[in-house]
Amino acid sequence: MADPHAKAELYEQFARVGKALASPKRLELLDLLAQGGRSVEDLAAEAGLGVSACSAHLQVLHRARLVTTRKQGTRVFYSLAGDDVTRLYAGVRQVAAAHLAEVGPACHAYLGDDVEQITRDELLRRARAGDVTILDVRPAAEYSAGHISGAVSIPLSQLSQRLAELPPDTEIVAYCRGPYCVLAHDAVRLLRAHGRAARRLADGMPEWRLSGFPVAVGA
Predict the structure, then answer these.
(1) Is 176 marked active-site?
(2) Is the pTM for the entire model greater than 0.85?
């Protein structure tokens, strides 16, 4: 006969993952780590947290084995434990969007009116044909950790000053961290305001990588 205590222990282990995900800031940290490994200090700055608070959230994720750590001198760097964690985070977003009516209005309030988009498959086809400029508008460190092969790196904060670096006669496809990242939306709006033909990638770098599409690393 099954031992109810053993069953309870099994489900308690499953619940460790659920408990680790039950925080908006920890989900935001997973989103950042899906772009590549980062130090505690960098993650804290990006997430708008103090270093101590960020470290506490990361420890919760680490105890659930969702992230791994490495030390470099006195600094601690975190990475996702595997692609399955990236897929888990994407699944949480998809379930929330499918079943919670509140997601839509919250998404619109954050991202604004949607801008025209392009799928991964279409972007890959056009990149191979050489008739599109791919623009990575994430911070430079995220670009260096991994980017779409052939993409140009111009962080959104620098885009208005560096428009002349982009070819004027090809469509620009901007991408960032994922479908709920505002950077590519804002980049497309800025580009179109300056008369450039522009769209955004429907999702972002993690989805591109998980699809097995060409990825490059380094500056």
Answers:
(1) yes
(2) yes
